[in-house]
Design a protein that fits this description.
- By secondary structure, this protein is α/β, with parallel strands linked by helices.
- It has a single domain, classed as Rossmann fold (3-Layer(aba) Sandwich).
- 30% of the residues lie in helices and 17% in strands.
- It has a ten-stranded mixed beta sheet with strand order 3-1-2-5-4-6-7-8-9-10, with helices on both faces.
- Helix 4 links the parallel strand 4 and strand 5.
- It is globular, with a radius of gyration of 20 Å.
Length: 394
């Protein structure tokens, strides 16, 4: 089931990078950090919580060199999950992979878009479908991570029960356009607990600071940006008011955007509500969410900071912010895709969103901004500081 899917998947990724003039070839590397916040104990390890970092970056020039051992072929998705680790952490990582795989099946494979009945993949099992998708090629080549990359760096934080590599296409899109893209786990496997259960029921400032400090080192004087989805966006709101951590913040659907009941929000997201009502944010912020209305979002109107809003006009699912959810499209014609038309619409909005995110960060870098290609109908509602309209595509 491997080769027949590759062109279908890559076609979308190629289209995402097509607007940049001469996109850079992409390198991939992994490394290991340790959080200066929580400690973790499990599966034979006890110590600072390990951060298994994945990095995508431009290849060429003095930026990085390919690793000859992996040859000229692009890496496949499952090859992004083979870090070299100390023996004490191998069982931890193996357990983390099992939980990430289960989350992928539950959130990205099992149900159709806007459907509650599981997809019948017969004669294939869900595990076979997962394995076939993970055998797909990426655009990246194994390479040496440039520890002083002299490029702007993006840190991505996955959502609750999410995966560090849930947004490979986003990573490749930015790497092809000259950014270093870092992601890592913010979950750890806990024995007898549901995947996503935190080590402590509070914001993980320590892990956030650890990965952002590493990003500053890699950026080597260039800017550092933060993108968070869902719980990852919430962690951004809870931490990024601290000066010097990030130069811009992209918040992808915290799930609070359409809320109006402050009591409900304080019950479910007390740390986020406290942060947005008490702190000032020293960087430009782009909020993206399908609120079923138009921005600005009620509870964020009083945020002290420069906030811009991007709200899809058409329905956009909470998992559709991740390329992992859209991978299922690659199986069209090989296994069941009952929501194929809806999934194509989600992929179109995802690609349009990536263009908008790139334009926003290019502006923050002081680079020339090539606005997304003019569409017949702008797919987004827009608003800016004070509720003014943000200029759309031209």
């Amino acid at each position: 089931m491997r080769t027949g899917f590759v062109p279908l998947m890559l076609a979308l990724a190629v289209r995402m990078a097509a607007q940049s003039a001469g996109p850079s070839p992409i390198g991939f590397a992994d490394t290991l950090l340790f959080s200066d916040g929580p400690h973790y104990a499990g599966f034979g390890y006890a110590g600072p919580a390990p951060l298994f970092v994945q990095a995508w970056f431009p290849l060429g020039g003095t930026m990085a060199r390919p690793l000859g051992r992996r040859g000229p072929n692009n890496l496949r998705f499952h090859e992004l999950r083979r870090p070299a680790l100390p023996a004490s952490l191998v069982p931890v990582y193996q357990q983390l992979l099992l939980r990430m795989d289960s989350a992928f099946v539950e959130y990205c494979l099992r149900y159709p878009f806007d459907g509650d009945d599981p997809i019948d993949y017969g004669p294939f099992t869900e595990q076979q479908v997962k394995d076939s998708l993970f055998a797909l090629g990426t655009h990246a080549h194994g390479a040496v991570l440039p520890l002083h990359g002299e490029r702007p760096v993006i840190v991505y934080h996955h959502g609750s029960q999410g995966m560090s590599d849930e947004n490979v296409w986003m990573a490749e899109h930015f790497a092809a356009n000259g950014y270093i893209f870092l992601s890592c786990n913010f979950h750890w496997p806990l024995e007898g607990a549901t995947y996503g259960t935190p080590l402590a029921w509070e914001p993980d400032h320590g892990s956030m600071r650890s990965i952002l400090r590493f990003a500053r080192q890699v950026a080597d004087g260039n800017k550092v940006f933060y993108i968070g989805h869902s719980w990852g966006a919430q962690e951004g709101w809870c931490t990024l008011h601290e000066p010097g951590l990030a130069d811009a913040f992209i918040s992808l659907e915290t799930t609070m955007e359409w809320k109006t009941d402050t009591a409900e929000v304080r019950d479910k997201w007390p740390h986020v509500l406290d942060a947005i009502t008490t702190h000032h944010y020293p960087m430009p912020i782009l909020m993206v969410a399908d609120s079923d209305g138009e921005p600005p979002y009620p509870l964020f109107k009083g945020v002290r900071g420069e906030v811009r809003y991007l709200d899809p006009k058409r329905p956009f699912g909470h998992e559709s912010y991740t390329s992992a959810y859209l991978m299922r499209r690659a199986g069209e014609g090989r296994f069941a895709l009952p929501d194929g038309e809806a999934l194509r619409a989600q992929a179109d909005l995802y690609a349009a969103m990536l263009d908008e995110l790139l334009a926003f960060l290019q502006e923050q870098c002081g680079r020339p901004v090539t606005r997304p290609v003019q569409r017949q109908d702008d797919p987004f509602h827009r608003a800016g500081p004070g509720g003014s309209a943000v200029q759309g595509p031209r």
